[in-house]
Amino acid sequence: MRVLVEADGGSRGNPGPAGYGAVVRTHPTGEILLERYGSIGVATNNVAEYTGLVEGLKAALELNATEVDVRMDSKLVVEQMSGRWQIKNAGLRPLAADAAALVSRFARVGFEWIPRERNSAADALANRAMDEAAGIVPSDVEPEEPPKPVSWAPPSMDNATRLILVRHGETELTKQGRYSGRGDIPLSDEGQAQAMAAGGRVAGLARDVTAVVSSPLQRCVRTAELIAAEVGGVPVTVVDDLIECDFGEWEAHTFAEVQERWPRELAAWLGSTTVAPPGGESFETVAARTRAALSTVLKSYAGGVVVVVSHVSPIKLILRDALAASDSFLHRLFLDAAGVSTMDVWPDGNIAVRSVNETAHLR
Q1: pLDDT at 151
Q2: Do 46 and 7 lie in a common domain?
Q3: Are 330 and 223 within one domain?
Q4: Which residue among 55, 225, 244, 265 is the active-site one?
Q5: N or C: which terminus of the chain carries fewer CB neighbours within 10 A?
Q6: So what's the pLDDT on residue 138?
Q7: How far apart are CA 304 and CA 206, in angstroms?
């Protein structure tokens, strides 16, 4: 996929309070796919501009782009990244190195200088970042309402949608502790028994199940079918975006094997949800499609009870968002095969997580 990246940065004082902005667009139509902006404290214009470039390239990677056309109104950054000017400022070299490392991950990256008026979207984002850091509220934005008082009373279930999240049963790769992403492998005999046990637990949690939705991979579909049989034969609906993370070259390898063969890539992946395994997809890409899938499910079955059968990564990301947890949550939570988690979601966006990774039914 080919994309356009427009990036900019600015500083009010040079050095002074600084911010960056980056926009990723479709090629050639120019529709916006992603935007990034943020404050970076006190810095120079050039540091802010390089930061905008780095963040724009990261965003392109999140979208699995293979070719990138970078457009910036910074002559310095464009000429240095094109190799025509030397990087004499020692403070810019680490950022330039970061940008070069990101460039190497694409099949092709081109750099083009454009006048500032053609870079207005990225420039506006950079200024927005600086404004927000300074506490400046735009005139067309209404001030936020004061926070509502917290109530410790049990929430009413009126209009709530209950989500019962179930990881698929065991497979041969699960048993061996191997990365299992898009490989479409079946449940083991033990996995079939676990799925039926999970169905019993689901039946105990909800008398009337509205829907059972599943990842398209057979280990999930079969788990969903066995659960559906336990709760009255509810049809199974496949939702493609509930599929597991694509682990790329790490597929079917153990953590130890990955650590030995791809130590740098593994360290980068563990350190950032925007980094993807070689040939795979990042957790943030998985999170984006999982959120979209969950939004559709909530609209389709509002006020009902929905069993969601998926994989480790999508379920962890759903729980991370529900608990407003940091990214480190993803590497600290363990989800057993056929483990069950439960949460309630209200139309106003409130969420109550009831349980995480229940496994008593598996003993």
Answers
A1: 47
A2: yes
A3: yes
A4: 244
A5: C
A6: 57
A7: 10
